[in-house]
Each structure stands twice: as structure tokens, then as C-alpha cells.
Design a protein that fits this description.
Layout (H helix, E strand, L loop, with lengths): L10 E4 L6 H31 L6 H29 L4 E3 H34 L4 H4 L2 H27 L8 E2 L6 H5 L7 H34 L4 H29 L8 H25 L2 H21 L1
Parallel strand pairs: 1-3
Antiparallel strand pairs: 1-2
Helix pairs in contact: 1-2, 1-9, 1-10, 2-3, 2-5, 2-9, 3-5, 3-7, 3-8, 5-7, 7-8, 8-9
Length: 316
Amino acid sequence: MTWENHSVLMEFVFLAYPNRLELRMLCFLGISLAYALIISGNILIMVSIQTETRLHTPMYYFLGSLSGIELCYTAVVVPHILANTLKSEKNITLLSCATQMVFFIGLGSADCFLLASMAYDRYVAICHPLQYPLIMTVTLCVRLVLASVVIGLVLSLQLVVFIFCLPFCQDRGIEHFFCDVPPVMRLVCATSHVHELSVLVAAALAIAVPFFFIATTYALIVAAVLKLHSAAGRHRAFNTCSSHLTVVLLQYGCCAFMYLRPNSSYHPKKDQFISLVYTLGTPFLNPLIYTLRNNEMKGAIEKVLTRNYFSQKIIQ
């Protein structure tokens, strides 16, 4: 079945939202607070990196890019979730659902590829420190960020076109808060294992391949660090990687649970909670992880906040 056989005006209905007004208002306030913290935390990181000259290094350029991608990533679905929480009718057209899924999956995949680029940056810095300035140039960093976004969106577009060219059943209820792959695939009437395998292959390219690259990179980093004779040197090397490794485990753990499994193992209630973790929890925790475990980042943020505080005092 092709796009011509679908009606663009065909609508899906989201079923995950609570029916009681009190619960909806509580959800709205909680999600609004989390989203405000996500926006403020990631913008603060981007501004700090931009204004602080000593942070103009590849590692922080990647971190700033990660914050920018996560701002866009959450903007795709969180405002939509907030609007649906207050609306009585929680419908979405076929075209809007496909568009939302393209950008949500695409930017989420870009996140994974960018984390792999950050792992490569740490590998070069620790295993080839003398060649680091020659290898990790500004041009390479820009190309890696752009490649992460482009590859993520291309993979996502191919996957979404494939899904929405499949025949949908009469049931239009999506047991989720937004258009994600597992709940939408539950509405597909085609039962061929080829369709499910195609989704798993796309998920493997976006999740498993970068993860194995990161795992290999860290194996080489650990081998190099263990050869250092200085305990202080080993501690410093591991410390520079700990924040990134924590974010990797959090991001890939949630993504692997959602996408690298057969469609038959989908459990709506449990998966709705997991989706909120990687939609709200991960973008909220990433700035905290990178700031609390990084003295340079903490110092830069304190400078930005102090500068803004004194600027407001002068204006007043």
C-alpha cells in the first residue's frame, strides 16, 4: 500500500493520557517543569561554551552541539504532549504523525551518532595526545556533527516512509503520548516478519552500530590508560570520560529497550514510562551530568550566571 492509498486526513487518537482533569493538570505541571529545566539547562551549557574562550575545544563543541540537538529533539514532542494534556480530543493526522516521527527518530539517532563522535574525540585525546590538534580540527568537528544529523534524518525518513506505506487496521488508537515506532507498528495489519525485521535493521544501524563503535573505542582507551605509570594521570583520563560514558549508558539503555526487540514484546504501560524517561529524563540529566562532574563547565556556568546577575543589578 502506498501513500496514494492513504487519506492524508486520516487521523490517529492518542490513548495514553489520563481521563481525569486533576491528573491531566498534574501531568501538565510536571512535564512543564521538566521541559523548562531542560530548556534552561541546555541553553545555559550552549551559552557558557560560546562565551568562555577556554571551552572552545572539540570536546565542548560536541557538548554544545549535543545540547542543541536535544533542545530540538524535545521540541518535536514535548509541546505536543503538553497541548494534548489540556485538549479533550487528542487526534493527529497521518501526515502530522509521520512528520513528528521523522524528526523525533532522526534527532534521537543524531544523538547516538554524536555520542559516538564524542567517544572518538576522547580516544584521540587519550591515545594520541600529540596528534590531537592535527586530527580534531574545527572542520572535522563540524563535519562529524553535520554527518550525525544528516545520517540520523536519512535513516529516520527511510524507516518512516516504509512504516506509513504499510496497511493500517481499522483501530486508530495509539497507546502512547506521541507517534513513536513501536505503538504505531502495533496498528499495522501486515504480519510479515519482513516488516518487523526491517524496523530492527534500521534501529540497529542507528543504535547498535554506534554503541559497538563506542564500546570498541573505550576498550582502546582503557588499554591505553592502564599503561600509564602515574595514578594521577589515570584518574584524570578516566575522569574526562566518566560523564560521557554515563550519558551513553543512559541514552543507549533506553533506546535499546524500546527499539531493539520484537514487536510482540511491546507493553504499552511500561513502554510509555520508558519513553518519558528518554524524552524528558535524558535531556534533563545530561546537562546535570556534564556540569556536576566537570569543574571547567561548572566554572563557566557560574561566570555566566554571575555576569547576568550583575547585569540585571546595573539595569535596575
